């Protein structure tokens, strides 16, 4: 119950401070090393979850694993797309591909190797989740992860999808 209260409060504060924010014009690397502009992220007018994580962050892995268990259902119900953005630097980025493949994650995965996106969104720690509404505007934010937070995340996405 405490996690739900923290989640709601974190979102409310974030919405007041960052409403109407769009993704900045910065680039990240895909798993093949190709540069991709984040302002091209889209989902045909449906919500997008951007989960900031790192290979060395156990709560990050736990959150992405918890979502992975029901991700197919989430897509069917709400049309949501999850984009996992690693903040691993040159020392640890070699492990991104193996973590993703060993866990069978079906997410789009990118590396914010120089933390341009991370910093431009005012993020201080991972795990950190940003939810974009259908037009790509930041609708909600959530810092940290506690087991069960994924259910609140799904409810937020369903609300944005009009469900």
UniProtKB/TrEMBL annotation:
Database matches in Pfam families: AhpC-TSA
One GO MF term: antioxidant activity
Transmembrane segments: none
Domain of life: Bacteria
Identification of the protein by name: TlpA family protein disulfide reductase
């Amino acid at each position: 119950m405490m996690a739900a209260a923290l989640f709601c409060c974190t979102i409310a504060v974030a919405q007041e401070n960052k409403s109407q924010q769009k993704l900045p014009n910065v680039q990240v690397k895909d798993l093949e090393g190709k540069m991709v502009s984040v302002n091209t992220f889209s989902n045909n007018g449906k919500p997008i979850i951007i989960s900031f994580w790192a290979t060395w962050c156990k709560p990050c892995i736990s959150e992405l694993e918890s979502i992975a268990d029901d991700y197919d259902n989430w897509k069917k119900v709400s049309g949501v797309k999850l984009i996992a953005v690693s903040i691993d630097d040159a020392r640890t980025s070699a492990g991104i591909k193996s973590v993703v493949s060993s866990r069978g994650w079906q997410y789009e995965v990118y590396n914010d190797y120089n933390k341009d996106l991370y910093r431009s969104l005012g993020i201080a720690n991972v795990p950190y989740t940003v939810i974009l509404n259908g037009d790509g505007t930041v609708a909600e934010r959530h810092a940290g992860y506690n087991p069960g937070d994924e259910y609140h995340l799904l409810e937020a996405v369903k609300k944005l999808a009009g469900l």
